[in-house]
Design a protein that fits this description.
The protein is mostly helical and about 230 residues long. It is built from 10 helices and 2 strands, in the order E-H-H-H-H-H-H-H-H-H-E-H. Helix 3 crosses helix 9 and helix 4 runs antiparallel to helix 5.
Length: about 230
């Protein structure tokens, strides 16, 4: 049985990329099919994040040598926490769009003429909103892993754990996300159908980052008893 240490983790950027490729190569055909099913899940309203989380569950099964089928993607056990997470994201987007829309209107129409001052303020607002958005995205990097791989249904607890894990790692996680995103885009650049290969690889790389991070914060209670007895 495991509990968790609330601590910063050692983010092993390069390892996750290579390990993600190796995991993908274990069963390329099923990974591609699992991605197709994940895409189908994303078409269902408010089920995109759920489908991705189920893909990470699939990755864990394959990584551990457990029986796994692409149809595992169509699992709704974690629907509620992901629904709440989706609603929170939608709420943030609406909150960000309100001042943005107000500034757009003011910057483009004051007495029928554009305002350079408000235009500058609009640019600053957009920059600030982007910074805030990326901050929350990076700090919450491990939330999908905590929900799908560890069964954490309490989003506040998942946020606090993820926030601790990402401490002093935001730049590395950001660079990792850029590299993984580039890998995913290669399939579009070279051949549109190539995304059926490159996107599953990006998910596998993310999974390896999640798994390693979770392993670093897990604390086995049996080990704790042994330590105390000594």
């Amino acid at each position: 049985m495991n509990n968790y240490l609330t601590k910063q983790i050692d983010f092993k950027f390069g390892d996750y990329i290579s390990q993600g490729f190796e995991l993908f190569k274990k069963n390329i055909g099923n990974f591609v099919l699992a991605f197709i099913f994940t895409f189908i899940m994303s078409i269902i309203p408010l089920c995109g994040l759920l489908g991705m989380g189920n893909f990470y569950k699939y990755c864990r099964k394959v990584n551990n040598g457990e029986p796994a089928t692409p149809s595992d993607i169509f699992n709704f056990d974690d629907f509620k926490p992901y629904l709440i997470l989706n609603l929170i994201i939608i709420g943030f987007v609406i909150a960000f769009m309100i001042p943005y829309s107000i500034m757009i209107g003011m910057a483009t129409q004051i007495g029928g003429e554009s305002s350079p001052i408000l235009g500058g303020l609009l640019s600053l607002l957009i920059f600030a909103l982007v910074v805030v958005m990326y901050y929350f995205m990076l700090k919450g990097f491990y939330i999908p892993a905590l929900i799908s791989l560890e069964g954490k249904k309490d989003l506040k607890e998942a946020w606090n754990i993820s926030k601790a894990m990402t401490k002093n790692n935001l730049l590395m996680i950001f660079l990792f996300a850029l590299v993984v995103s580039f890998i995913g885009q290669i399939g579009i650049i070279l051949c549109g159908i190539g995304i059926l290969l490159t996107i599953p690889i990006t998910y596998a790389c993310n999974y390896m980052a999640f798994e390693d991070g979770l392993n670093q914060i897990k604390k086995d209670e049996i080990d704790e008893i042994g330590t105390v007895s000594h």
